[in-house]
Amino acid sequence: MNIRLSYFVPCFLYVTIVQSSVPYMTMNGGVKMPAIGYGTFLMMNETVLKIALNEALKVGYRHIDTAQFYMNEQVVGKVLHEWLSSGKLKREDLFVTTKLHIINEFPNKVDSALKESLEKLQLDYVDLFLIHFPIAVDLTKEGGFVPRPTDLVGVWKKMEEQVDLGRTRTIGVSNFNITQMEKIMSHARIKPANHQLELQPYYQQRELRRYCRKHNIVVVAYSSLGAPGFYEFVKAVGLDPIEVPPVLDNPEIKRIAAKHKRSAAQVILRFVYQLGVVVIPKSDRKNRIKENFQIFDFSLDRNDMKQMRKLDLGEKGKIFDFKFLHPEIFDHPEYPFAGLKYRKAT
């Protein structure tokens, strides 16, 4: 049975439930995004990703988040092609996001970059194409990055052309601050439909969420569960990670989880969703892929939400400073997190 129910969530973004009780948030231009997606950051092992993504699709995930930077679009494409060519899914059943790599963040590279992504994904179009980070870089012979002057408005104009050409249904940004958002908004013919950003209990991004709500920009949260795998990644590239206490071990979250007979992860994902934000949890474990998806059959009450909001540490709770891109990234004029310039890793 195909059940449709419309209502308003706390952020006042219009939401519609369509099949399987998975809510959809409607973006600028009328494009609907499932309120939960499957994230693929740091999933570069082909076998692991194939198994995990197949499991996610079996569970019911229809929103798949990838990026040129993740170096896994080709694997994602293989799995999606198998599901589409076999008739198990139709293209319109899926919502696929990819992102412009920072090495392609130049007006003359946007066109070819998205065409390459579409070839790897074996798709005629993506549903959402994002500017991944507001700083362009050149790639060195050694494989490192060198930050370069960044023409955000020029890049955005080329992003708009991709919509005109039918290569993406809509466009947005990721990891931008409000000043950068204003720069785009003041020159945009097609307004950003989405902003993907770090959002978890210790870093709740209230001001940026208010800005996005005001302009009807749907927010997608990455690393809502604290990104435990990211610490190992940072260490692997020879840097000291910013140490933030594991959010899944927080006593208050565990208390709320016990009250609802749910896991800490489910409580966190439900909290973020009740803020009016789309979640894209990542896991390669079958039980957790399923568990993370099961957040729409319970709700947190007013007191639960109040206690969860109290966990916000502001910038002290932020995990990603992007120093792994370049040791002097903080000095770039477009570095989006000004307050982190003076925060030292512990």
Automatic annotation (TrEMBL):
Keywords: NADP, Oxidoreductase, Signal
MF terms in GO: oxidoreductase activity
Residues at the catalytic site: 70 (proton donor)
Residues that coordinate or bind substrate: 132
Annotated signal peptide: 1-20
Residue intervals of the NADP-dependent oxidoreductase domain: 45-311
Site feature: Lowers pKa of active site Tyr: 99
PANTHER family in the record: ALDO/KETO REDUCTASE
Membership in a protein family: Belongs to the aldo/keto reductase family.
Name by which UniProt lists this protein: NADP-dependent oxidoreductase domain-containing protein
Taxonomic lineage from the root: Eukaryota, Metazoa, Ecdysozoa, Arthropoda, Hexapoda
